[in-house]
Amino acid sequence: MAARLVRKSAPLFCGSDMSAASLLRTVCTTGRPAICLLAAIVLLAAIAAPGQAFAHAALVTTEPTDGAVLAQSPAQFSLTFSEPVSPLMLTLVRPDGTPVPLASFRLNAQTLDVDNPQRLGSGTHVLSWRVISADGHPVGGSVLFSIGAPSAAPAVSEAVDRGLRSAIWIGKVFLYVGLFLGVGGAFAIAWLAKSGRSGRRFVIAAILCGLVAVPLSLGLQGLDALGAPFVQLAQPGIWQAGLATSFGWTVLVALVALGLGLLSLVGPRGGAKLLAFAGLAGVGAALAASGHASVAEPQWLTRPMVFLHGAGIAFWAGALAPLGLAMRRKPAEATPFLRRFSQAILPVVAVLAATGFVLAVIQVQAPAALLETAYGRLLLVKLALLLFLFALAAINRWKLTGPAEAGEAEVKRRLVRSIGIEMLIVLAIFGVAAGWRFTPPPRALAIAAAQPASVHIHTPKAMADLSITPGHVGPVAASIVIMTGDFGPLDAEQVTLVLSKPDSGIEPIKRAATKRGDGTWRVDDLVVPVPGRWTARLDILVSDFEIVKIEAPIDIRP
């Protein structure tokens, strides 16, 4: 299928020196509870992870409606979403399976109007679409409609590519390794270790890991955006598609941050602090450039919160490996390092907790969503890990730091093991957070659920726009705008809405509408009991001697 781009919208580490490997080996051999914990984390993450792909922008209404049978070929198609989108691929599939690219379209707020370039013959057609959400995540689908009479629908595949999703998840984890352990580690070496060089090779390896993962993630984003297979990864259009999404900005800023962190380690010592500080700021900016939390409203609050949260994670997580390696290899060098870290970590943890709480409240909204949504379950796993991490950090800070600074050898060994366990937990948190790439937050789901179910009914005698809000089961309100068949005003004496679904065994729901001052008709005392495809009929009393009945199917969500 043709694609049209519009606008943007394994091992734990790639490599390390022998001292870093020995540190982790010490944890694995002497800290079996940590390994058990890591295994439990993986299991919890697997349980919490979603079993299917979710949309991040929901399709609200279409024209023609899905399953509609039209008397003649439409001049254009219309797709309305729950949030603004940018189209990536628009294709019309004929009854014989021939794809026709649709290149002429217009964006009007949340509605995408697509021109039909040709007169369509009889049979069932498929309008296949793929768009990019504001958070940088793609979503696609299709609408079936028929001209004259239905025929066998042409096959359009929308299967989830599990291999691609796994690659995107792995790329996200290594992106976090490069930014948090790499750039954050460079900041710790420049500002906390000062003249110390322990962990330098480890941090360089993490940055190099990120420098490989970041551009590769851009290509994977392009594949996901266009729904393309792995074999097309080398095509320029794939990379252009990835760059055109909001994730493209994350990639560009992340590359700058990784480069600054690397220069602070291998460049002149005089400018190391400035470069490392700019790199740490780049970590926060990269995370704030795209993603669920960044596009949430109000953005004047959410983007700064994401920036501070990301920078705080890099400060904490980045210092762990250099500090642990310094304590293991160079105790004299580690003592001032440990003192500076213990003094700075308390305000950093306070910032992390405050920003994380604000973002969680905005994204989750209702406590029930913590258990009812995949996003909420992943958040619970992350919170459990954070509580364990905070408890471990508190023990390190108030029970082990003082004796370690005093030179007690056994306490230093315990502190090294504890830091190693902290690193394992941090890596597990990276894995859980990467799973959010495939789960819309409850905030987005609530916005989609509140969208109306709408249908346009057009006959030679009368036409109407019917909206049922919200478009799911339960108490709803119906809004009706009526006109003549040629779009003129229709001064009706009475309008009655009849909803029927014979296959459900429910008697038709009949309600008289009330005319409002703006000319619209409204039904408020309405409850839709079951989801599915209903038939909406409007009985329009034009005069005492004439009544016009028009109807069309309307889909009600669960």
From TrEMBL:
Membrane topology classification: Multi-pass membrane protein
SUPFAM superfamilies: E set domains
One Pfam family, short name: CopD
Primary localization: membrane
GO terms of biological process kind: copper ion transport; response to copper ion
Bilayer-crossing regions: 173-193, 202-223, 243-267, 274-293, 305-323, 344-362, 374-395, 415-436
InterPro entries: CopC/D (IPR032694), CopC_dom (IPR007348), Cu-R_CopD_dom (IPR008457), Cu-Rt/internalin_Ig-like (IPR014755), Ig_E-set (IPR014756)
GO molecular-function term, one example from the UniProt record: copper ion binding
Domain Copper resistance protein D: 337-436
Domain CopC: 56-147
Keywords: Cell membrane, Copper, Membrane, Metal-binding, Signal, Transmembrane, Transmembrane helix
Subcellular location per the Swiss-Prot or TrEMBL entry: Cell membrane
This protein's GO CC annotations: periplasmic space; plasma membrane
Name this protein carries in UniProt: Copper resistance protein CopC
Species this protein is from: Mesorhizobium prunaredense
